[in-house]
Amino acid sequence: GRCWRAAYSSDHKPITINQKTYRTDEWFNISPTVLSLTPRKLHLQKDHPVYITRQIIESVFPAPTFKTYNTLDPVVTTHENFDSLGFPPDHPGRAKTDTYYINSETLLRTHTSAHEAALFRAGESPGYLISADVYRRDEIDKSHYPVFHQMEGARVWSRADHGENLATAIWADVEHLPKHDMNVEDPNPAFHAERNPLQERHKEEEAAAVAAHLKKSLELMVYEIFTRVRASHAKTAEKKEKEEPLKVRWVEAYFPFTTPSWELEVFYQGDWLEVLGCGVSQQKILDDAGVPEKIGWAFGIGLERIAMLLFQIPDIRLFWSSDERFLSQFKGVSDDLTKLKPFVPFSKHPACYKDVSFWLGGTTSSAAGGNDRGVQQWHENDLMEIVREVGGDNVEDVVLTDSFQHPKTGKRSLCYRINYRSLERTLRNEEANELHEKVRGLLVERLGVELR
Ligand code: FA5
Ligand code: MG
């Protein structure tokens, strides 16, 4: 097989992303596949479902209240992505196993929140929207992909404008939002001293007003999406009355840059699907951005997750397809949203499961997840990355099916089931075997495991 260390790690050649060149160092860990996706920017590709989804959400947050930014570069500093947002130095999100680094202080943004500080500082309007490609080393299944698109939104009010009447002013804006009749489950208290605390500098009625404005705005966004979904169905299906009522719920969450914080989940394909995270912005971020007199909210949505609901797209890999059977289904929709219809899957090709079992190497671990061959700390994302590199979009999902510790040696054994299935054709068993053999080889070579 190919030697990964020589290819990405030890020669530290500069790399070019979107016409800019960057130095690399021992932190560099971006696979060629992921690099090749940096120019794609699906949110800017007309008639692509990610583009259409962006368009619809933008319509719920109109100018001039919201200013839109859709071409911010994906390469950011560790300061922008983490420090400016209050991520502690040892936050797991910073690890090489979770984030794609160019060098020790430069990375591919893991979320659109990386631009919050700069845009709060710019302060051109009371609100902004950012749509962008984001990058994460993550698990493999039908709703996770290492490159996806997020939309960030934020809205602030200034104490300088409203003084003592700040809460009243925000409530007035809440009252002006359109109504919806969606069924929303929200059993959460406005604040919770331990789990979801009010900020020191916020009065309870101010933060409650901001939270109400935030939740209602996002419910309207989901409502708008589902109104489109319904309209698209009415034209294609007679079984309208069979339509499931839309179910959404608010769940308490934690982000270093908001408190209180929530996630919004939508019931989809028999399961609760998390579509966004949000909260009341930490005052520290606004202070650092030079606008300490402001108070407001922020959210981050996964655009593919919304697009999957909107178009009933069953698998996140499809977004990256250049197959005309996929792309042709959305032609003309950007210019005329009434043309929107559910995606019609092309026939599902057979799956081909392969298991791989192994003992984890050694019992010592090198702290940084190391470049040393052999013994290193186990992280599942490293396996996922190998599978993605070898199998690309021919892998549907990877699940841990067994894990145990040997009573005498203390060694841990893991078994993963890899589901090889192409969206576009039937994979032959020999092809799947060949991919699987490569995966096995690289697991030994790079992660130092012992195959069973
Ligand atoms: C964030 O990224 C926060 N920056 C969101 C935020 C912004 C919170 C502003 C508060 C204020 P999270 O990691 O949960 O949070 O991701 C947000 C959304 O991105 C998720 O709800 C989901 O819809 C989507 N998402 C996350 N990981 C993936 C993935 N691997 N593939 C596709 N979509 C994903
Ligand atoms: Mg989340």
Automatic annotation (TrEMBL):
Major location (coarse): mitochondrion
Coiled-coil segments: none
Locations listed in the record: Mitochondrion matrix
Domain Aminoacyl-transfer RNA synthetases class-II family profile: 132-342
The reaction(s) this protein catalyses: tRNA(Phe) + L-phenylalanine + ATP = L-phenylalanyl-tRNA(Phe) + AMP + diphosphate + H(+)
Gene3D superfamilies for this protein: Bira Bifunctional Protein, Domain 2, Ferrodoxin-fold anticodon-binding domain
Enzyme class: ligase
Keyword Mitochondrion: yes
Keywords: Aminoacyl-tRNA synthetase, ATP-binding, Ligase, Mitochondrion, Nucleotide-binding, Protein biosynthesis, Transit peptide
PROSITE patterns on file: AA_TRNA_LIGASE_II, FDX_ACB
GO biological process: phenylalanyl-tRNA aminoacylation
NCBIfam families (UniProt xref): pheS_mito
PANTHER family hit by this protein: PHENYLALANINE--TRNA LIGASE, MITOCHONDRIAL, PHENYLALANYL-TRNA SYNTHETASE
Function: Is responsible for the charging of tRNA(Phe) with phenylalanine in mitochondrial translation.
Family statement drawn from the similarity comment of this UniProt entry: Belongs to the class-II aminoacyl-tRNA synthetase family.
Protein name: Phenylalanine--tRNA ligase, mitochondrial
Species of the source: Podospora australis
